[in-house]
């Protein structure tokens, strides 16, 4: 059975499942709130006009690519801080927690600079009316202003979750979502003497909300009694470049893994543009719904990186392997339930997005693909989170590159846009390749997790199991 869970008493499995759920549930709600912010931006911009909707979609794609990649780099703080706590190194925990704040701010500043530098080449690449391009750039500028706060917030996220206190992350994220809606409206329509920005105002609202997110979470963890023994600002000192190098060494492969995954979907969206607006609209609708379901395994993965990190840091590799197995079992159970719901509710799901019968017909077919890859997507996501808890990031990065760019994007182009293997499949070729790539990633990452956790267990025990 999976990670020898059949040898463990049922009450121990259930107890660990509750521990993982206690961490995962608040973070899942927080992540859904963040995804909902993008949904709100799209809906509110779409009510203004088609140009504004296009500007938000394009500007958000640039922002999301940079944000998710850098978020992956900062995610290195989760296993680092968890290992310190597991090994009882409270002083080192406080030092790296405070250095993580500097690291997030500086990395976010570099991300903001990158976004601003991308504006000039994008003006030459985008074949759109000048007024739309201007709104895209205005959106990017506003979102870039919030990037330092976004990365500092992710550092605080790692700090709070490593201590086993994810609820403030959830509360602040929900407040940020609530703030985003009136800010969007004010900046879109130019109320209270502010300039009327149209859809581009959503980018500036995003930037402001990120600063609120960061400062509110910082205030909470600095004040609440649950954090009094490990105040993040208590150990604040000048930036330590050697610690930043250690963060980058572990975080760069994670960031590249995140970039590979997010760029796969971005590139597919660009490649299918020639297939028509109905195909693009259907693809984006199914992808949007799939991203909501993805929050389930992603929250478990984040919880595992903390739980596994605690026990790996303490040298308890038996518990770390057990936790990995329980997390995978939880994720597969949730993915199985999600798969059944998607299969049963395909048409109602598509009717939430469009009343166009062409979109509904194509979308119900694409949702079959989305249902099929729920299990393997959950497996690759959760296995990656557990491996981060072991501080293993290089091999998962190589697996992601092979699976997503070669099997996913390369095979998708061959199946969808050429007749080299089979007659051209169009959008269905890309989704077939997605299923294959996620299956490959799920199998390889689960195998690597099983092998690596077993090796550490043998080394710890000094015997051959």
Q: Which short descriptors sum up this protein?
A:
single chain; 465 residues; mainly alpha; 2 domains; 82% helix; 0% strand
Please give a structural write-up.
The protein is an all-alpha fold. It has two domains: 25-239, no CATH class; 252-465, no CATH class. It contains 16 helices and no strands. The protein has helices at 10-48, 50-74, 77-86, 90-125, 130-145, 147-162, 167-189, 201-223, 241-271, 277-313, 317-344, 346-353, 357-372, 374-389, 394-417, 427-461. α1 packs parallel to α7, α1 (10-48) runs antiparallel to α10 and α10 (277-313) runs antiparallel to α11 (317-344). The chain is globular. The two termini are 16 Å apart. The chain crosses the membrane at residues 20-40, 60-81, 101-118, 138-156, 168-192, 204-223, 244-272, 292-310, 322-345, 357-376, 397-422, 428-450. InterPro entries: MATE_fam, MATE_MdtK, MdtK-like.
């Amino acid at each position: 059975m999976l990670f020898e869970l059949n040898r463990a008493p049922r009450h121990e499995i259930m107890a660990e499942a509750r521990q993982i759920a206690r961490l995962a549930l608040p973070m899942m709600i927080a992540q859904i709130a963040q995804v909902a912010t993008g949904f709100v931006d799209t809906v509110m911009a779409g009510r203004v006009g088609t140009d504004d909707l296009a500007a938000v979609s394009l500007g958000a794609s640039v922002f999301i690519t940079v944000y998710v990649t850098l978020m992956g780099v900062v995610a290195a703080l989760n296993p680092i801080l968890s290992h310190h706590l597991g090994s009882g190194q409270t002083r080192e925990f406080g030092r790296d927690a405070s250095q993580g704040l500097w690291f997030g701010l500086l990395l976010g500043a570099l991300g903001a600079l990158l976004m601003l530098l991308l504006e000039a080449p994008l003006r030459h690449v985008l074949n759109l009316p000048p007024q739309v391009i201007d709104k895209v750039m205005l959106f990017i500028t506003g979102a870039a202003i919030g990037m330092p706060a976004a990365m500092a917030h992710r550092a605080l996220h790692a700090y709070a979750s490593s201590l086993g206190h994810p609820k403030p992350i959830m509360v602040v994220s929900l407040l940020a979502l609530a703030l985003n809606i009136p800010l969007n409206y004010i900046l879109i329509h130019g109320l209270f003497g502010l300039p009327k920005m149209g859809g581009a105002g959503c980018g500036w609202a995003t930037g402001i909300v990120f600063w609120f997110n960061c400062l509110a979470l910082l205030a909470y963890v600095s004040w609440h009694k649950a954090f009094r023994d490990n105040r993040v600002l208590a150990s604040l000192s000048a930036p330590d470049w050697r610690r930043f190098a250690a963060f980058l060494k572990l975080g760069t492969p994670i960031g590249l893994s995140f970039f590979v995954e997010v760029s796969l979907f971005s590139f597919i969206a660009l490649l299918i543009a020639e297939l028509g607006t109905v195909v693009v609209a259907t693809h984006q609708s199914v992808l949007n719904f799939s991203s909501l379901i993805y929050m389930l395994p992603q929250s478990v993965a984040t919880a595992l990186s903390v739980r596994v990190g605690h026990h790996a840091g303490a040298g308890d590799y038996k518990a770390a392997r057990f936790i990995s197995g329980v997390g995978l079992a939880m994720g597969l159970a949730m993915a199985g339930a999600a798969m059944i719901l998607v299969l049963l509710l395909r048409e109602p799901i598509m009717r939430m997005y469009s009343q166009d019968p062409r979109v509904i017909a194509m979308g119900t077919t694409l949702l079959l693909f989305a249902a099929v890859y729920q299990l393997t997507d959950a497996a690759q996501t959760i296995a990656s989170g557990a491996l981060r808890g072991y501080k293993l990031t290089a091999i998962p990065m190589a697996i992601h590159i092979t699976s997503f760019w070669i099997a996913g994007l390369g095979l998708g182009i061959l199946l969808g846009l050429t007749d080299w293997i089979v007659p051209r499949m169009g959008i269905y070729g890309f989704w077939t390749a997605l299923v294959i790539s996620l299956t490959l990633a799920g199998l390889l990452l689960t195998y690597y997790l099983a092998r690596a956790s077993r090796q550490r267990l043998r080394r710890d025990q000094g015997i051959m199991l």
